[in-house]
Amino acid sequence: xxxxxxxxxxxxxxxxxxxxIGSRIYPLVVPQxxxxxxxxxxxxxxxxxxxxxxPTSLNNKRVQFACVGAxxxxxxxxxxxxxxxxxxxxxxxxxxxxxxxxxxxxxxHDGFVDEQPAGYVRYxxxxxxxxxxx
Length: 134
Hints:
This protein is α+β, with helices and mostly antiparallel strands and 134 residues long. Helix content is 25%, strand content 49%. The chain has a six-stranded mixed sheet with strand order 1-2-3-6-5-4. Strand 4 and strand 5 form a beta hairpin. The chain is elongated and about 50 Å long.
């Protein structure tokens, strides 16, 4: 199972986040007809980790989440809830998911989406050190 699939599973299972977004978590962009709030995700960077004797089973990925809300406060609150779920996470992510050795939120910045659905955006970048699941 990929990190991205495990993230969707974990976010959908979190009571606080699922209460806000339901199943509205999308790869790359929030669809034009989506109800807000919603989350989109994309991998920004990713690579395997090398040791002196060659490749290891560890991977390093930076995932960016776009937390979109109808108001600035809604977008910021959604990003805060997502950061609280992922910040410092260590363990199995999602059911039969990947093994996360460490997760760190490394950047946040704001934006605005003026196409439909128009809304405020808080981008959250999270670095994951992980082993892919089976």
